[in-house]
């Protein structure tokens, strides 16, 4: 039997069974939620115009870029801390969460006026101010999320994702049918933040005195002296670890959303609406699974097991590729048939089909970027992850900027080519570098070791 078909046998280790269960809860929640969102998007696509979609794309992209560094600014550090340091770190982490959330609220509010001035439209101000309120809700649940991730409670994390998506989709559908326009998408985004908060806080009190039982996690944040280990829970230590992670995440989010910004800048709001529709219709389900994979993978890699970090990374990467590739291939092959049938002929007339297909195909390699990022972060190489994401983002910006001279289809093609070249190359380079390090360490060991 070929070697390729033997890897699932080794995948049956306890640690990978945990990852499989984690991905099952998160992935199934994403898929079921996406089914509801698909039904909602069918109605939205028939009621709203490409210009409406363009406005929504700008608002949601702005919100996502500002929110992204908040999610793991303290959580990534808390997951890696020892039980005792985790409890001591909670007050400092809470202060950081509140300071960053208030800052995000102010940035989003200011940005709403800047966008209104740039596009000469006041339609951006009130929706963005309303969405900015969500930032002030986050600190009430961020520590509880960290606790759930530390204890590998992916069932609860998945439940939060599922109910957020379901309620968001149902409310969006109802409000759209009433005729609220872009408010039908904006208002539910704020409401589901309270759903997220309640699910993560329900029967999940934060520890105060006695350390809680958690799986054997890796020691603490990377330290070089014993004196530093005693202060691993300090505000400075949390920020020292969290800021590179937050910057890496925002760089990754910027790379995933930069095409929206450039399409809107070069081609206008209506063209952005067509691109935004094609992107969400094509990559909605696969990106949901990939994001769930990233969430589960980081917690998985931070937990010690019989496998090395490199072994867990490789097996996990094979697992997600075998899951996502068939879905994307099937979706791409059926696109010419179901796109006009489900969403309406107007999107076919607008030229969304070739853009849909090319963006869908780009999803074949996107798991590679997610896996490499989580590997580097779990291996205390956040600065390298940040540099890599910056380089990849700059390459994508250059490709899209040049392609914008020839329109939307050229942008989608440029994005596809850029992803197909950069992500596999970077993944291969990382694996080779890690193999060289392991080989070098093996040669340096004494013969009788």
From TrEMBL:
Pfam families: Polysacc_synt_3. The keyword Cell membrane applies. Keywords: Cell membrane, Membrane, Transmembrane, Transmembrane helix. The chain crosses the membrane at residues 96-119, 125-149, 170-199, 274-298, 319-341, 347-365, 386-406, 412-431. It comes from the Bacteria. Signal peptide: none annotated. Its main location: membrane. It is a multi-pass membrane protein. InterPro entries: Poly_Biosynth_Transport. It is found in: Cell membrane. Belongs to the polysaccharide synthase family. PANTHER family: LIPOPOLYSACCHARIDE BIOSYNTHESIS PROTEIN WZXC (PTHR30250:SF10), PST FAMILY PREDICTED COLANIC ACID TRANSPORTER (PTHR30250). This is Oligosaccharide flippase family protein. It comes from Shewanella surugensis. The lineage of its organism: Bacteria, Pseudomonadati, Pseudomonadota, Gammaproteobacteria, Alteromonadales.
């Amino acid at each position: 039997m070929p070697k390729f078909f033997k890897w699932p046998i080794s995948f049956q280790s306890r640690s990978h069974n945990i990852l499989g269960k984690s991905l099952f809860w998160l992935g199934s929640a994403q898929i079921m939620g996406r089914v509801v969102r698909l039904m909602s998007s069918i109605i939205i696509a028939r009621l709203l115009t490409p210009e409406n979609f363009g406005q929504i794309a700008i608002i949601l992209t702005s919100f996502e870029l500002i929110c992204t560094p908040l999610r793991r600014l303290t959580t990534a550090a808390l997951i890696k801390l020892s039980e005792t340091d985790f409890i001591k770190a909670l007050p400092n982490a809470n202060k950081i969460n509140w300071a960053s959330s208030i800052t995000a609220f102010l940035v989003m509010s200011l940005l709403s006026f800047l966008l209104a001035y740039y596009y000469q439209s006041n339609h951006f101000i009130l929706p963005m101010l309303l969405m900015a309120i969500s930032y002030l809700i986050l600190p009430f649940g961020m520590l509880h999320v960290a606790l759930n991730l530390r204890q590998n409670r992916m069932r609860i994390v998945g439940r939060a994702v599922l109910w957020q998506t379901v309620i968001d989709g149902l409310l969006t559908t109802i409000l759209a049918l009433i005729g609220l326009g872009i408010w039908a998408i904006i208002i539910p985004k704020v409401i589901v933040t309270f759903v997220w908060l309640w699910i993560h806080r329900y029967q999940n009190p934060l520890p105060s005195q006695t350390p809680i039982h958690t799986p054997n996690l890796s020691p603490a944040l990377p330290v070089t002296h014993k004196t530093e280990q005693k202060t691993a829970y300090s505000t400075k230590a949390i920020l020292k670890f969290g800021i590179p992670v937050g910057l890496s995440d925002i760089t990754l989010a910027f790379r995933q959303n930069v095409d929206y910004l450039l399409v809107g800048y070069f081609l206008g709001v209506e063209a952005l609406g067509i691109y935004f529709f094609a992107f969400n219709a094509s990559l909605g389900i696969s990106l949901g699974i990939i994001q769930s994979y990233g969430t589960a993978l980081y917690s998985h890699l931070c937990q010690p097991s019989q496998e090395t970090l490199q072994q867990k990374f490789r097996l996990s990467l094979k697992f997600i590729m075998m899951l996502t590739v068939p879905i994307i291939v099937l979706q791409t092959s059926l696109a010419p048939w179901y796109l006009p049938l489900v969403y309406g002929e107007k999107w076919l007339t607008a030229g969304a089909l070739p853009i849909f297909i090319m963006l869908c195909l780009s999803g074949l390699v996107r798991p590679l970027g997610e896996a490499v990022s989580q590997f580097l972060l779990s291996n205390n190489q956040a600065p390298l992850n940040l540099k890599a994401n910056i380089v990849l983002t700059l390459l994508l910006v250059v490709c899209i900027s040049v392609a914008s001279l020839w329109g939307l289809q050229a942008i989608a093609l440029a994005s596809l080519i850029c992803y197909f070249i950069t992500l596999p190359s970077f993944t291969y380079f990382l694996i080779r570098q890690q193999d060289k390090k392991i080989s070098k360490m093996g040669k340096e060991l004494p013969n009788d070791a």
